[in-house]
Amino acid sequence: ETGVTQSPTHLIKTRGQQVTLRCSSQSGHNTVSWYQQALGQGPQFIFQYYREEENGRGNFPPRFSGLQFPNYSSELNVNALELDDSALYLCASSLDSGTNTEAFFGQGTRLTVV
Amino acid sequence: GEDVEQSLFLSVREGDSSVINCTYTDSSSTYLYWYKQEPGAGLQLLTYIFSNMDMKQDQRLTVLLNKKDKHLSLRIADTQTGDSAIYFCAESSSGGSYIPTFGRGTSLIVHP
Question: Pairing with A68, which of A10, A34, A105, B22 sits 20 to 30 Å away (CA)?
Fold first, then answer.
């Protein structure tokens, strides 16, 4: 148990719809990173939030957006869903946007777009 | 851009040692990591090594780093069936704000 919880665990959406995924950070952690893991691939960095501000972004289009709340929980929003958005979405929380050596991952949300 | 390569599969017998290999391209890599992912679960950080080290041992796990060849390995001694999982190699650097770049993962299968 890492203390990082994600919801929902599984989700099925139709192409063109919008989705919101949620992540509750480990207590005391102020940094959240989101990753997309397609089947058979390693996780790909989407973006990171540090103290409610975006603190880095990977190579993902603007329809991937996020929020971090004052309690440091976070949301990942994806608009205009495409079939290729089907993946496991992982969040990781850490204390400060440092070396990632103390980042803890949630169990992920499995998104299927049909 | 940065690239991390791993072989996709490794099959070993229970009790043997497993060695999972990884190569990376970013010569400015500062940290190198090994993560474990069990079916239906997120990633668990197993161990990491700083780039100025060449070896790190933690119980059954030994990490070897050859910085000249940009080669990282993870040795698991006395491999057990519970070690069956996907193992990801990752690297990060200050230039990338320490955001890890992951390989595709090596699926370790441990059979009796």
Answer: A10
Q: Are B88 and B34 in contact (CB under 8 A)?
A: yes
By Cβ distance, the residue of B41, B99, B105 closest to A42 is: B105
Eight-state DSSP code of residue B22: E
Q: What is the Rg, in whole angstroms, of the alpha carbon atoms belonging to chain A?
A: 13
List residues of chain A with CB under 8 Å from any CB of chain B: 2, 4, 6, 33, 40-45, 48, 55-56, 58, 90, 92, 97-101, 103-108
Q: What's the CA gap between A92 and B45, in Å, rounded?
A: 11
Whether residue B18 lies within 8 A of chain A, CB to CB, comes out as no
- What is the bridge-based pairing of β-strands A87-94 and A44-50? unpaired
